[in-house]
């Protein structure tokens, strides 16, 4: 196992080198997590002692960017859950290229039931199917034992806040984060479009030491 990455610049370089979706599916909203937001989320978890030597679960891992980043920053174990076979093949290839140790699980997020200390997620934003993010958030609250680190559109703030209250979870932070959506699908007409995205940190009711 390689030594954990220590410098932000090194993490940026590694994540930038990862292969993206070979044939992104618009219905699944298969868009890569931008590098800088991914690094912000991972370093946020690291600074709050929720990454190094922790068990980590990445729900809807896609091509593995968050899962691989967590592994390279020193997580004790990392699981990446993804329903799309082609995306998982890319994730496995990316892990081999970087030396990251990740257990890849091919299943829908609602079909995975093994808890972890820290849950990471960049769920679908619901551009193609309303409420596509709901199963991911439900799984995150069900499975996180210490912290949830996630992205969402700003217009989901009320939903997530209400869900946190219903689950007796504490919102530690929610803040806007710079996010640009590159042209990925045939219906995208502009090379890049800024999106109003938030970074969330939430604590479940029962926090493991």
Give the class from helix and strand content and strand pairing.
alpha/beta
Query: What is the highest CATH level, the class?
Result: Alpha Beta
The end-to-end distance, rounded to whole angstroms, is: 25 Å
Percent in helix = 25-40%
Gyration radius, in Å? 16 Å
CATH superfamily (homologous) name = Vaccinia Virus protein VP39
Notes on the structure:
With 209 residues, this protein is of the alpha/beta class. It has a single domain (8-203), classed as Rossmann fold (3-Layer(aba) Sandwich). The protein has helices spanning 8-17, 35-47, 65-72, 85-98, 134-143, 157-166, and strands at residues 55-59, 77-82, 103-106, 116-121, 144-153, 170-177, 180-182, 192-194, 197-203. The strands form 2 sheets. The chain has a 7-stranded mixed sheet with strand order 3-2-1-4-5-9-6, sandwiched between helices. It has a two-stranded antiparallel ribbon with strand order 7-8. β2, α4 (85-98) and β3 form a beta-alpha-beta unit. α1 (8-17) packs across α2 and α2 (35-47) crosses α3. It is globular and about 40 Å long. It starts with 7 loop residues before the first helix and ends in a 6-residue tail after the last strand. 40% of the residues are buried. The mean pLDDT is 90.
């Amino acid at each position: 196992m390689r030594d954990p990455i220590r410098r932000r610049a090194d993490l940026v370089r590694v994540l930038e080198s990862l292969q993206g979706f070979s044939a992104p599916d618009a219905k699944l909203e298969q868009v890569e997590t931008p590098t800088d937001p991914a690094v912000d989320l991972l370093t946020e978890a690291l600074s709050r002692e929720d990454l190094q030597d922790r068990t980590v679960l990445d729900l809807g891992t896609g091509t593995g960017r968050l899962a691989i980043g967590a592994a390279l920053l020193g997580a004790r174990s990392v699981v990446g859950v993804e329903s799309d076979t082609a995306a998982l093949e890319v994730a496995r290839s990316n892990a081999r290229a970087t030396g990251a140790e990740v257990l890849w699980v091919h299943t829908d997020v609602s079909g995975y039931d093994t808890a972890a200390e820290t849950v990471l997620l960049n769920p679908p934003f619901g551009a193609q199917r309303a409420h596509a993010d709901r199963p991911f958030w439900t799984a995150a609250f069900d499975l996180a034992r210490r912290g949830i680190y996630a992205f969402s559109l700003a217009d989901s703030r009320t939903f997530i806040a209400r869900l946190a209250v219903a689950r007796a979870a504490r919102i530690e932070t929610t803040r806007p984060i710079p996010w640009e959506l590159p042209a990925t699908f045939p219906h995208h007409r502009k090379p890049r479009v800024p999106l109003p995205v938030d970074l969330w940190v939430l604590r479940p009711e029962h926090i493991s030491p």
